[in-house]
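Collaborator request, handled under Task 6.
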Amino acid sequence: MARGKPAGLRLETATRGQVEFQQGSLDDLLSADHRARQVWDYVEGLDLGVLYGRVRTTVLSSGRPAIDPAILMSLWLYATLDGVGSARLLDRLCRSEAAYRWLCGGVGVNYHTLSDFRSDAGPLLDDLLSRSIAGLIASGSIDAQTLAVDGLRVRASAGSGSFRSGERLQELYGAAKQAVEELRAEIEEDPGSAERRTKARRQAAAEDRLRRLEEARRAHAEIEQRREEEAREQRRKKPRDDKPARASTSDPQARVMKMGDGGYRPAYNVQIKTTAEGCHIIGVSVTNCASDRGLLGPALDEIDRRYGVQPQRLLADGGFDSKTDIEQLHAEDIELFCPLPKNTKGDPAAPRRGDGPGTIAWRQRMASEQGQAIYKRRFATERPHAHMRNHGLQRLLVRGADKVKAVMLWHVHAFNFLQFKRLDLISQVH
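Structure tokens returned to the collaborator:
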């Protein structure tokens, strides 16, 4: 009770310790137009045959039944829209928040099941993206003639302190290998069952560390090889970066990259392909290349593999201005709209020595007012990036390119869901 209450007043005050019996159903918790209901209706219309095919519990089998994959799918899609990226947090929300309880429908879930489903659903989400967008392209609801390609650098789970030089990785690998061999020998010699199980767990942990160190050694070799290839392409006697190559022991596939704020941190480079008209995400891939140069070719290959179409125009930022890519696009009759370099002497639109016909046409195109007007359409396609950042995509909580792509696909489907809903295309997706 607040201070300042004079004597003699009669008031109704809060009594929160009183036990009450209330009748109601989970369906009464949400309004008719709640987003959780919309997500459930959307998921119910998807073809989840791949997930149902993995279920081994049938009416003839014994044991606890499996959780309906549609429930797990709905939970993660709604959680992504809600900015929730942690399986443990989602587990708690399923017990306390009305929307998540409604989606569960009385089915119990735990963070381990949620975490495994999020990562394992990557191939299914990738296939659903292709099938949903392909139908919309075929019906003319989505125009894929003008596409924007852009890289989004997302901070990796690995810390900067996990990166080791090649010499240090070799030392750690030798020590880990010796530890595994000693534990194996102890388990074979010790007949005690209880202590044997304890040592078996220690051996499993040691083998996991040995595996990660082996992956880090391979990653270190790849980094050195890439540096040498870049030096040969640019005709330098030695790599530009004179610092020793380093690889992470916790996430070997992560690479140190320059982020949007100018700092350098472990990250992944996510390539997002978006339609200029309607701003739908139609492609996504994950790479650990710090530079965007040379990635336009793989972007076109992905679009062709998914939908069998070839765009007429590509919009990209200044990081994609590779002459090799420009000439390749020109040979395929695709116009590239990418800014001209500003750090060159003279007129950037003037032809340079070694320019091919595609590069010359690109310079002339970007020097024209019409080319600049078309290129400005690219800025609207960065809205998906802002949406993902505002919905929790600040730092990854998973490790490895495959799991990172799965997390990105959840964000892609969440964004496209809002786009489909806004344009009333959900019925066509199904």
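The cover message to the collaborator said: "DSSP finds 16 helices and eight strands in the chain. The chain has three domains: 26-54+68-120, 124-157+265-402, 162-248. Please let us know whether this matches your experimental observations."
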